[in-house]
Amino acid sequence: MATAAGAVTSHFSPPSFHGLTTTTTAASFSFLRSSSPSSFPLLFSTILPSKIRRDSSQIKASSSATYTESQDLKVNSIPTKPIEGQKTGTSGLRKKVKVFMQENYLANWIQALFNSLPPEDYKNALLVLGGDGRYFNKEAAQLIIKIAAGNGVGKILVGKEGILSTPAVSAIIRKRKANGGFIMSASHNPGGPEYDWGIKFNYSSGQPAPESITDMIYGNTLSISEIQLADIPDVDLSSVGVSKYGNFSVEIVDPVSDYLNLMEEVFDFSLIKNLVSRSDFRLTFDAMHAVTGAYAKPIFVDKLGASPDSICNGVPLEDFGHGHPDPNLTYAKDLVNIMYSDNGPDFGAASDGDGDRNMILGRQFFVTPSDSVAIIAANAQESIPYFKSGPKGLARSMPTSGALDRVAEKLNLPFFEVPTGWKFFGNLMDAGTLSICGEESFGTGSDHIREKDGIWAVLAWLSIIAYRNKNKKPGEKLVSVSDIVKEHWATYGRNYFSRYDYEECEAEGANEMISYLRDLISKSKQGDKYGDYTLQLADDFKYTDPVDGSVSTKQGVRFVFTDGSRIIFRLSGTGSAGATVRIYIEQFEPDVSKHDLDAQVALKPLIDLALSISKLKDFTGREKPTVIT
User: Fold this and answer.
1) Burial of residue 206 (number of CB atoms within 10 Å: 0-12, 13-18, 19+)
2) CATH superfamily name and code, 260-472+479-492
3) CATH 3.30.420.10, domain 494-628, yes or no
4) How far is CA 230 from CA 237, 286, 472, in A?
5) Active site amino acids
6) Which pTM was predicted?
7) H-helix or E-strand containing 184?
8) pLDDT tens string 509-531
9) What is the pLDDT of residues 74-86, one digit of tens each?
C-alpha cells in the first residue's frame, strides 16, 4: 500500500513475537514510545529539519542545509561541528543517555563511522541494526536508519521493536551475509534517562570493528563538518515487513528466528529437552528484564520444555526494572537468592543487558566464569554436536584464570592469551585456529558467531549436564553442577580466582594508581620478595596478534609469582562514567583436599598483598570494592 513520500510498504502477516503471546508482547514493549521530538530537543534541533519532523513546530531546518536527490531519495547535508570525547572503548562508544541526547552527538559518530569505512563496505550494501531495548534505543534507531540511507546503504535489517541481542546481531550478519551491523547497547550497564547508552559497529564476519577502524572513527569525529541525512519518515518498528524509499529499503525482522535456528544447529535440542523435561530436574533463567527476555521463552520453554515459571524477570524493560543487568553475585541477587534457598533449583543462569554475558549456578554453588569456559572446553566434544570433531583451539583474556590453559595442554590444543575485548578472539576464529574462548567478566563463546554469547553458554552447560545424566533412570541421583565442577578440579587442579571491582572511581586517582604501578614494575626484577611470594615477572601486558601482526600495549599490569599466583590491575573500558578499577587475584591449588575452601579465604594473603602493592585506598579513597566476583 502507498505511504508517505514515495515509500512503499509491504507488510506480510507477522509471526507471533517468538516467546511472547500477543498479550505479553504488548506488555513487554509498552516502554517503546513513539518518537517524540519535544522530548529530545537537543538531539533533533539541528539534525532533523522541520519538514522531516512534521509534528514539531518548534524544530526549524538549518538555513545552511543543502538537499540533493538520489534515485528518488532526497538527502540533506546538515552542517555540524566536531564534539570532544567520542573515542570508543573496548566495546564501542558508551556515555550517559543525556550525553547522546546532545545536539548531533550520536549523528556525528554515526556519520564519522561511514566516513571511516571503504565505500564498498556500505554503498548499496546490507547492514543490520538492533539493540537491547534500553531507553533511547527507538529514537536512536530512527536516526541511524536515516543516516544510513543518506550515505547510500542499500538495505538495513532491523529487529522488531528495535530488539536484537548482541549475539543475534552477529548471527544475522553472518547468515544474511551482511556487510556489518549497529548494536545499540551499553551492555551490562544500567538503563534509563539518568543512566547509560552505547553504540558499536560489527564487521561482516559479525565481530566488533577492529581498532584500526575505531581509531579512524575517532579521528573523523574530530574533523566532521556535515551529516548526510535521508528525508524519509520514521519507520514502523512494530511490524515485520519491508518498507522501500527509492533504492533504500528497511526490513523489520523477527529478532529470535535466525538465532534460534543457529542454536538448533550447534546443540542437540532433543538431548537437552530430555533433561529439562524430567520431573526431578528444575532450572531457573534470570533475564534481568533485559534483551534475553525476548529469547528465553521460545528457547527454554517452547523448544526445550521448561516450565514457564522457570523464567525470572523475563519481560524486557527500557530501565531493566530499575536494576543493573550485570549477571554476577551482586546484581543478579534474585537468582542468587533462589539458587541458595533450601530447596533451590538444580541449575540457574542469568544473562546481561544485551545478552552476551552469562552467570552459571548450581544449587548453592557458583561456577566462576574462568572455570565455566574451561569445563565447557573439556566436555565440548562429547556433549555438543558442533564440536564432534574436537575444538580447533582455546583462548582466554589475560586476566582470566589459567584453568583453560590446563585443558588446552591436556587436550593438546593450540592456546592463546589475548587482551580483554572480544575482537581479539575474532581474528583467531577467522583464521581457523580458535573454537572456544572466554573472559573472566562473564563472557563465554565459540566460533559459531563472533561475539560472546550468554544463551549459548547456558545451552552448553545444559548439554553437559544432559549428557552426564542421559542414562539416569527416574529416581536415580542426577550428576549435579557441583559434581561436574569438582570432578574437573580433581582432574586439572583448582585455580582459585577472584575479581574486585571499584566502580566509578575518580578518573584522576585511578590513573595515578596505574601510573604508580607501571613505575613500580619498571624497577622490579625476578626474585624480588613480596611477603611470602617470590616474583617471577612483572610487566604491562603486551599482545602481538598472530594473524595480522597488530600490537596492543598497556593491557594490564601483572605481578606473576614463582608458584603461579597472579595479581593483575586494570582500568575497565566498558563503563560510561568515571573509572572502574579492577583487581584480579589467582592462585593454583593441585591438592584435592584443599579444593573446598572459600575463594576469599584461600586468596586472602594475595588480596591483602594486592591492596598493599597498589596503595588503592590512598589513590582512590575506596575502603571496599563495589563488586566481588
Assistant:
1) buried
2) Alpha-D-Glucose-1,6-Bisphosphate, subunit A, domain 3 (3.40.120.10)
3) no
4) 18, 40, 61
5) 187
6) 0.86
7) strand 180-184
8) 999 999 999 999 999 999 999 99
9) 999 999 999 999 9
